[in-house]
Specification:
Helix content: 40-55%
Family: Belongs to the peptidase M1 family.
GO molecular function: alanyl aminopeptidase activity; metallopeptidase activity; zinc ion binding
Number of strands: 31
Cofactor: Zn(2+)
Keywords: Aminopeptidase, Hydrolase, Metal-binding, Metalloprotease, Protease, Zinc
Bound molecules: arginine, zinc ion
Shape: globular
Number of helices: 27
Strand content: 15-25%
Distance between the termini: 17 Å
Pfam families: DUF3458 (PF11940), DUF3458_C (PF17432), Peptidase_M1 (PF01433), Peptidase_M1_N (PF17900)
């Protein structure tokens, strides 16, 4: 069944108060609710039946205003409960039973390592009790949790208002959340947990207690998250004027979790991997990811909770905006350029692929079968780019006026993407009507840009043609409103002034299918620097020559575009290598690429992390996304060849780089140190491509002596990829021996093997799934092993006999029985079958077909597979 945005209607009934009472039992938890319900005056006349959502619930009783409702008056279905109503306002009491122990979907109330926890977004609350489970029903919640003393910590949203002992030896705690919220923001946690505590004083002087809860063994891994939280709280006050609003803010780490984390009011629940870190056990990447996710969830308190979504088609209203906010936060805390490069790389690989595939959808979708499938890169990352474009078009101050108005106007409401855009317009007297198409049209726009220079008149012009390929249900697209940030470089590499004010950078507003922008008084033909900072989520085509790209790499002052010039050059070189390979010619690496990489490596002025990014060849996934017909074998051959050539030719510079950026300073996860480690480890990985014993020894020495996980894991990955069998196996064993008790490190150990192009063979991946630490019921383990293989091991996954695809299909089918959300996500690589050359394409398609015919699929998996087969 498909749900359509156009069918939206306001709720028939509102719930002013929600009182919940839980008696926790692993195999039979009793839930009692008391809902203060009122006819919605905005919904029209009469008293239609009250429709409540409820899935997999054991209904025990229903009462209205204290009187049992007899079963003539209500109807139960697998999807919910419909009750006849004879009055406009009443108190509904329901009792039902649920079974947390059997809940492997990790949605609703479930157990993780003996700890009770919940995940209600998007539609998990209906697995707890019967309720109008839709975000536009906002209610004030009071929650009482009763449990045995084996669960000393009992948490829910808001403030604790009561606690005590029961006569039977159990105890209870009651929580009250003063802010009305939709059911998807409800949370409950019960367990034997320790916590760390800190406090934060808000701008207006209120003191907030901050607590992070984990199992005792992880209590030493909370400090980084706590520091990140305090930074995020300060940043949101300074940059958006947003203060926290409760007296307490709690975070809980949970090992079994479908996504990264969840912004439940006052009680954020996190995937352990996204909150726990220590220098010995977490890589720099993990430290930075934790900082970003802690901030993301915290920022939702305003962009998501105080102002929430009217319906799930508006998901990007909170997610796109909040990703934009967390990206800016991370940029302010670390290197802005590198953050941008990382985000754009992800967008260009995964989001562009999604936007060109069978599941392509607009930032505000028109329809869905299962909302869980729409927590996508398009909603999150492209949605963030859409907000960023508004920021670029309006400028910092005007954007802030818009966000102030948005928060003020809609505080306490459930609203739409349209309301967000309207606030931006109203606060600034601007017209974003054409811009709104970014919310309704799917697909990645393409800009074809050409230029012209008339020496006699001194006029330079840029002609921009925009187009957008068709996507499911959308054949023709109307032109987008695209901010295109540009500069013009003269032959000395200087930025030309673009107007009388002397500004050297300008945001062109592309609105037509074809449009020409003219610049007067230009004395020589300039080189355009286009889409600086990646000013819009589009593909830019301009016929840069290799020489022009080299020039940009030397003189471009926008770091993002400097990196992008390097990527374009590498892409051209890899294309040529792929052609050589297919034609059976000897491959020859472009000398321009070689000299470009050499000069980047020798440049000690540049931020080392930017150097590391520039030295990294586009991944196989990026190369695949950018080609019309993917030839996996040629991509792998070209990339391996280029890597080997670079390693051989740049050997001395790489070694110099390795030593220059090694140091004995104590570990700190700070931008400067992270940059040095990143470049050092990039050099090490290249050096070991040569497979020379002296470099493998260097890797071994780093592995043996590393004082932090970043250096240790980088050395291990290098040994696994390039070392002898013996070296690789003994390092893997040693690492496991040392870290087997640490869940996060074991996940890394799994991932590193499954994604190794050299050693992550299908046999090894199957063996890892038999490892005692592997658990099909744990999404992190699944993502490390199966996801590592299917998403990050391009070489082995695309093996010519199609066995990689068959394997994935098998696992997806098995997982669907346990956890539909994870299964539907994991199947993604197979949905790209149309992009591949004949043989692989057929094998991929066959694997997808196999999933379809395997029996009854969950709604989640069915939607993805059925849409991808056509
Ligand atoms: N709102 C959460 C976040 O962005 C993600 C929750 C996703 N849940 C789900 N079932 N898909 O931080
Ligand atoms: Zn979010």
């Amino acid at each position: 069944r498909t749900i359509y945005l156009k069918d939206y209607r306001v709720p028939d009934y509102l719930v002013d108060q929600t009182r919940l009472h839980f008696e926790l039992q692993p195999s039979g938890t009793l839930v009692r609710s008391e809902l203060h319900i009122r006819r919605n005056p905005a919904a029209g006349e009469g008293l239609p039946p009250l429709a409540l959502d409820g899935v997999e619930l054991e209904l025990l009783s229903v009462a209205i205003d204290g009187r049992e409702v007899d079963d003539q008056q209500f109807r139960v279905s697998p999807e919910g409960l419909s009750i006849d109503v004879d009055r406009p306002e009443f108190v509904l009491e329901i009792a039902n039973r649920i079974h947390p122990q059997d809940n492997t979907s990790l949605e609703g109330l479930y157990l993780s390592n003996g700890m009770y926890c919940t995940q209600c977004e998007a539609e998990g609350f209906r697995k707890i009790t019967y309720y109008p489970d839709r975000p536009d029903v906002m209610s004030r919640f009071t929650t009482t949790i009763v449990a045995s003393r084996d669960y000393p910590v009992l948490l829910s949203n808001g403030n604790e208002i009561d606690r005590g002992d029961m006569e039977d030896g159990r105890h209870f705690v009651t929580w009250e959340d003063p802010f009305a919220k939709p059911a998807y923001l409800f949370a409950l946690v019960a367990g034997d947990l320790e916590h760390v505590e800190d406090s934060f004083t808000t701008a207006s002087g209120r003191e907030v207690k901050l607590q992070i809860f984990t199992e005792a063994r992880n209590i030493g891994k909370c400090d980084h998250a706590m520091r990140s939280l305090k930074k995020a709280m300060r940043w949101d006050e300074e940059v958006y004027g947003r203060e926290y609003d409760l007296d307490i803010f709690m975070i809980v780490a949970v090992d079994h979790f479908n996504m990264g984390a969840m912004e439940n009011k006052g009680l954020n629940i996190f995937n352990s991997a996204c909150v726990l870190a220590s220098p010995e056990t977490a890589t720099d990447t993990a430290f930075q990811r934790i900082e970003a996710i802690v901030a993301h969830e915290y920022f939702h308190n305003w962009s998501g909770n105080r102002v929430t979504c009217r319906d799930w088609f508006q998901l990007s209203l909170k997610e796109g905006f909040t990703v934009f906010r967390d990206a800016e936060f991370s940029a302010d805390m670390n290197s802005r350029a590198v953050k941008r490069i990382e985000d754009v790389s992800m967008l260009r690989t995964a989001q562009f692929a999604e936007d060109a595939g069978p599941m392509a959808h607009p930032v505000r979708p028109d329809s869905y079968m299962e909302i869980s499938n729409f927590y996508t890169l398009t909603i999150y990352e492209k949605g963030a780019e859409v907000v960023r474009m508004i920021h670029t078009l309006l400028g910092e101050e005007a954007f802030r006026r818009g966000s102030d108005l948005y928060f003020e106007r809609h505080d306490g409401q459930a609203v739409t993407c349209e309301d967000f855009v309207k606030a931006m317009e109203d606060a600034n007297g601007v017209d974003l009507s054409q811009f709104r198409r970014w919310y309704s049209q799917a697909g990645t726009p393409v800009l074809d840009i050409s230029d012209d220079f008339d020496a006699a008149s001194g006029e330079y012009s840029l002609t921009v043609r925009q187009s957008c390929p068709p996507s499911p249900g959308q054949v023709e697209k109307e032109p987008f409103h695209i901010p295109l940030k540009i500069a013009l470089l003269d032959s000395a590499g200087k930025n030309l002034p673009l107007d009388t004010s002397g500004a050297t950078e300008q945001v062109l507003e592309v609105t037509e299918a074809e449009q020409t922008f003219r610049f007067e008084g230009v004395s020589e033909k300039p080189l355009p620097s286009i889409s600086r900072g990646f000013s819009s989520p589009v593909k830019v085509r301009y016929g840069y020559s290799k020489e022009q790209l080299l020039f940009l790499m030397r003189f471009e002052s926008d770091d993002f575009n400097r990196w992008d010039a390097c990527q374009r050059l590498a892409f051209m070189a890899m294309e040529a290598l792929q052609q050589d390979y297919r034609a059976g010619r000897d491959m020859r690496l472009s000398p321009e690429l070689l000299s470009a990489y050499r000069s980047v490596l020798q440049n000690r002025e540049l931020d080392p992390s930017l150097v590391a990014e520039m030295l990294s060849l586009p991944t196989a996934q990026v190369l695949a996304e950018q080609t019309d017909e993917i030839d996996a074998e040629a991509i792998v051959a070209a990339r391996n060849f280029a890597e080997a050539e670079l390693a051989r030719e740049l050997e001395e510079d790489l070694l110099a780089g390795y030593h220059a950026f090694s140091n004995d300073r104590p570990y700190r996860p700070e931008a400067g140190d992270i940059a040095e480690r990143r470049l050092k480890n990039t050099c090490l990985a290249y050096l070991c491509v040569t497979e020379k014993p002296e470099y493998l020894d260097l890797a071994q020495a780093q592995f043996d002596s590393a004082g932090n996980m970043t250096d240790s894991a980088a050395a291990l990955a290098t040994l696994v990829d390039r070392g002898s069998d013996e070296q690789a196996e003994s390092a893997l064993q040693e690492f496991y021996r040392c870290w087997h008790a640490d869940t996060q490190v074991v996940e890394l150990w799994f991932a590193l093997q499954a994604s190794s192009s050299q050693r992550g063979s299908l046999d090894r991946v199957r063996a890892l799934m038999q490892h005692p630490a592997f658990e099909l019921k744990n999404p992190n383990k699944v993502r490390s092993v199966i996801g590592g293989f299917a998403n990050r091991n391009f070489t082995q996954f695309h093996r010519a006999d199609g066995k990689g695809f068959e394997f994935l299909a098998e696992q997806v089918v098995a997982l669907d029985r346990l956890n539909p959300q994870v299964a539907a996500r994991l199947v993604t690589p197979l949905t790209r079958w149309k992009r591949y050359r004949a043989e692989l394409s057929e094998k991929m398609h066959a694997a997808l077909q196999m999933v379809m015919e395997s029996g009854e699929l969950s709604r989640d998996l069915y939607e993805v597979v059925s849409k991808s087969l056509v």
